[in-house]
Here is the input.
Amino acid sequence: ACFEAREALQLMVSHERLRHFFDINGNACRRTGYLPLHAVVVSGSVEAYNFLRALGADARLTTGKTSVPGLFGGLTSLQLAARWGKLPLVEHIIKSSLCAVQWQWGRITQYQLDLSEVDSDAVVGIGLLELVALPDACAASREMVLDTFMQGFVYELLGQKWRRFAHYCHY
Here is the structure.
């Protein structure tokens, strides 16, 4: 899927004899710990991501343990895209998987956003806000903190979190 071979992947998923060899949500690579959706996220292809999601790939499944240095385990698709600095894919995952339309009136739309993967909690462990602030985050990941990424979405969240919690610890 990350090489845009949709027909071959569709055949593997739909063919009765091949289906038990290829589980889109179950057979992680032994070496990298990545599921097919994670490999697509690292490649940065929004189209391939949508294709695998349409086939039933679960975006909330985490990467497994890896034996390859430099790869990251225990991350969801959104977190993996943020860690690798795939900005268009991060924006797409947030808009397509974490947002739900509450109401719409003309050109005005109210969205509800699930922040479970964006901000840290006990279930996920590390969120998007923490990933972009890590000292070893790549330059593209750090660009998510700028007020130009998604109209300042991450910038505003970090500002609110600072004013509400961290400000009191440091001053």
